[in-house]
Amino acid sequence: xxxxxxxxxxxxxxxxxxxxxxxxxxxxxxxxxxxxxxxxxxxxxxxxxxxxxxxxxxxxxxxxxxxxxxxxxxxxxxxxxxxxxxxxxxxxxxxxxxxxxxxxxxxxxxxxxxxxxxxxxxxxxxxxxxxxxxxxxxxxxxxxxxxxxxxxxxxxxxxxxxxxxxxxxxxxxxxxxxxxxxxxxxxxxxxxxxxxxxxxxxxxxxxxxxxxxxxxxxxxxxxxxxxxxxxxxxxxxxxxxxxxxxxxxxxxxxxxxxxxxxxxxxxxxxxxxxxxxxxxxxxxxxxxxxxxxxxxxxxxxxxxxxxxxxxxxxxxxxxxxxxxxxxxxxxxxxxxxxxxxxxxxxxxxxxxxxxxxxxxxxxxxxxxxxxxxxxxxxxxxxxxxxxxxxxxxxxxxxxxxxxxxxxxxxxxxxxxxx
Length: 418
Hints:
Elements: E1 7-12, H1 19-32, E2 36-41, H2 57-70, E3 80-84, H3 103-107, H4 117-128, H5 138-165, E4 169-173, H6 178-189, E5 193-199, E6 207-211, H7 230-244, H8 248-251, E7 277-282, H9 293-298, H10 304-314, E8 321-326, H11 343-352, E9 358-361, H12 369-375, E10 378-381, H13 386-392, E11 397-399
Helix pairs in contact: 4-5, 4-6, 5-6
C-alpha cells in the first residue's frame, strides 16, 4: 500500500536560534518522507514580530541572510515550495480598531469571526512584562496597532495560501503569540491539524511537538513502569542530585538563565525565626499565560496574587504562622517601553504592606531559596520547578493552578482555599 503524501505548511517570520534550526529539522524530516512542504517567508512585510516588535532593520537583515543561506539546498528539492509574504498594505484609516481600554477587551477582538485577540493580548503582555498594562499610554497604543495589523495581514495572506494549496498539516512555533496564534485560528477554522513546537532550554536543541494543542497545555500522561529497573533509577537520581545541588558542569549544558547563581549560599532572611511554623510561597510571573485562550476561558478570575493574599489573611491572627513570599526573578524585568515595574509587582507591594505575618523576598535579593525550603515547614507553588525540588528533599508541597504533573503525586493539589 503506497504512502499518502501530505502537504505541510510552515511559517517563518524571523526568529532567534534555535527556532530556525528546529523548523529546518522538521522540514527536512518531512521531505525525507516524500511529503510536500510549503514554507512562507514573512521576515519582511509585517508591522511587528515578537522578536522584532519595532522592526529594527539590522535584525531583519540578519534574519533574512541567515534564512536564505539555510534554505539554499532545500530549493533544489521538487517537493519544496518557498512563498514570500506579500504585504497588502492595509490602509490604517480603513481598518477600525476597537476601543481597547483593557486586556480583557483586547482578548475579545475577532477578525473574520476568528478570535485573534488572544494572540495579540498574549504578545502585548509578554513584551511589556505586565499582565495588566496601561493600554491608554501612547507607546502601548502604537504597539497594539502594530500587532493588530500584523495579525490581520497574516490572517488574510495565510488564508489565501491555505485555500490555494490545501495543506493537511500546519507547523508553528509556540502557538500563543499573535503571529502563530493567528495561524492556529485559521487551522481550526478550516479543520486542519496544526502542530506547535517548543525548543528546550538545552544547547543540544531538543524540542517537543504537540498536535492540535499549545505546548503549555499539553497533558503528558506520565505512566509509571510496572517493573522498576534499579540501575536506571540510580542513574536518574544522580542526574536529579546534580540539578538540585546546582552542579556547574551539569548547568553548562543549559541555555536558560540559572538564577541560583546569584544566591548567597545558606543565607536566610534576617530575624528568621525557626520556632515558628514558617511557610514559603514561590509565585510566578503572570503575563505569559494570562491571555492564552484555554487559561482565559477556564480560569478567568483566579489570580495568583488573590490566592496568595487570601491565604496570608486567613492566618493573619495566628501568631504561630509566618509566610515568606519569594518573588519570581522575572519580576525584576521592567516594561520595555516605560521602564516601569509591572502591575503584578505594584499590587504585591501595595497589598503586602497590610500584613505583619509576611516577609516579601524581592527578586534581586540574594537569599538562598534552597536554604529557605529546608527551614520552612511547607512550600506553596504555582507550578514552578522548585515545587519538585522541595518534594525531592522531603518537604510537603501545595501546588495551585497546575495539574500537569498531578499523576506524579509530588504535591497536594487543593480544590479550594478551605
